[in-house]
Amino acid sequence: MKFTHADPNDIPTLTSLLNRSYRGDSSRAGWTTEADLLSGKRIDEAGLTQLLNDPDSLILIARSNETILATIHAHREADTVHFGLFAVEPTMQAQGIGKALLAYAESEAHKQWGINTAVMEVITHRSELIAYYERRGYVRTGEMIPFPESDLWDRQVDALELAVMHKRLDTISSNS
Predict the structure, then answer these.
(1) What is the DSSP letter of 166?
(2) 120-152 b/e with 16+ CB inside 10 Å = b?
(3) Whose CA is closest to 126, among 36, 42, 41?
(4) Residues 124, 5: contact at Cβ < 8 Å?
(5) Is the dihedral of CA 93, 172, 1, 82 positive or negative?
(6) pLDDT by 10s per residue, the chain, length 176
(7) Biggest CA-to-CA distance, the chain
(8) Fewest CB atoms within 10 A around its CB: which of 43, 101, 134, 167?
(9) CA 152 and chain centroid, separation
(10) Cβ 33 vs Cβ 22: under 8 Å
(11) What CATH number labels 2-168?
């Protein structure tokens, strides 16, 4: 598996990966589905292109040969990095791909920006996903924020909110 930064040619593949990993029946092949919580798209090509062109963003990918298996978005905000749009091909989840990509993303954010704190915002209904991040060193802050509105999706349940989680990155080895 090879980790790289995404480029504009990756946008259609990444958009498809993100949407089938988060929403719809295809997402049910993995354990990270949001299909029971939200319908519609997670992101469109225009939104992903905007993130790719943002100088404070990195879109990182895991490839096997030429196939994109996973992606994560890192966004620098002051002295923190916010991770989101984290997706692994649904049929390939639970094989360590996401764990390896997250470690790479944390290392890249620390190396590129000198950032020592990572932030994740996770839907509170997703207790198994919160536990996944806790096993990787993320800690709930107690802060909750409203789930965003978008024309791309519709809520399937009421009272969606996001739990904010933090992790210190300054303990990451420079050999990571």
Answers:
(1) E
(2) bbbbebbeebbebbeebbbebeeeeeebeeeee
(3) 36
(4) no
(5) positive
(6) 999 999 999 999 999 999 888 877 777 877 777 767 777 788 899 999 999 999 999 999 999 998 999 999 999 999 999 999 999 998 888 889 999 999 999 999 999 999 999 999 999 988 888 999 999 999 999 999 998 887 888 787 888 899 999 999 876 554 44
(7) 44
(8) 134
(9) 17
(10) yes
(11) 3.40.630.30
Rounded Cα distance, 85 and 157, in Å:
21
Q: In what order do the strands lie in the sheet with 57-64?
A: 2-5, 57-64, 67-77, 80-88, 117-123, 161-168, 139-146
The residue type found at 128 is: E
Query: Length of the chain, please?
Result: 176
Distance CA 117, CA 110 (A): 9
Amino acid found at 1: M
Tokens of 47: 């939104």
Predicted local confidence at residue 145, as pLDDT: 94
The angle at the Cα of 159, spanning 158 to 162, to the nearest 5 degrees, equals 130
**Among the residues of the chain, which ranges form H helices?**
11-22, 45-53, 97-113, 127-135
